[in-house]
């Protein structure tokens, strides 16, 4: 019987998360097939190390609840990409408004201090906002992608 997934890995150390996610995405997209990552349940409740930011774009429009839960779990601030106002409820405790001209005035500084940046449902950000030494996680499909 042929294996269902072309790549499968167990995440044993939270520090390897970005590397394994990137490897799984490369294999999946390159071979146009399924990959699998096994993540221990306690990793989802462990606090994130360092400063974590989420940049949310139009692709998160139908996933605001999930995005807020992720930000709460990670202790991450959420910045909204330009023109995507309304993606999150204005009362969200993790929302830091938008980035760029007319956005949150301290967004650039906060974003540049981040150790990890999750790009969720977006592929663009204003020039000079992304930290040069942060790990960038790109969610290639929007969070609202139908299953």
Automatic annotation (TrEMBL):
<dbReference type="Pfam" id="PF00205">
    <property type="entry name" value="TPP_enzyme_M"/>
</dbReference>
<dbReference type="InterPro" id="IPR012000">
    <property type="entry name" value="Thiamin_PyroP_enz_cen_dom"/>
</dbReference>
<protein>
    <recommendedName>
        <fullName>Thiamine pyrophosphate enzyme central domain-containing protein</fullName>
    </recommendedName>
</protein>
<feature type="domain" description="Thiamine pyrophosphate enzyme central">
    <location>
        <begin position="52"/>
        <end position="124"/>
    </location>
</feature>
<dbReference type="InterPro" id="IPR029035">
    <property type="entry name" value="DHS-like_NAD/FAD-binding_dom"/>
</dbReference>
<dbReference type="InterPro" id="IPR047211">
    <property type="entry name" value="POXB-like"/>
</dbReference>
């Amino acid at each position: 019987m042929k294996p269902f997934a072309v790549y499968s890995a167990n995440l044993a150390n939270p520090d390897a998360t970005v590397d394994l996610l990137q490897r799984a995405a490369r294999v999946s997209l390159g071979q146009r097939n399924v990959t699998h990552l096994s993540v221990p349940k306690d990793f989802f409740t462990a606090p994130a190390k360092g400063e974590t930011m989420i940049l949310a774009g139009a692709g998160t429009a139908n996933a605001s609840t999930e995005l807020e839960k992720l930000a709460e779990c990670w202790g991450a601030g959420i910045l909204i990409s330009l023109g995507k106002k309304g993606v999150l409820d204005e009362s969200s405790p993790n929302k830091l408004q938008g980035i760029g001209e007319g956005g949150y005035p301290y967004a650039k500084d906060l974003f540049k201090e981040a150790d990890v940046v999750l790009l969720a449902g977006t592929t663009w950000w204003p020039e000079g906002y992304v930290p040069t030494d942060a790990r960038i996680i790109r969610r290639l499909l929007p969070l609202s992608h139908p299953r």
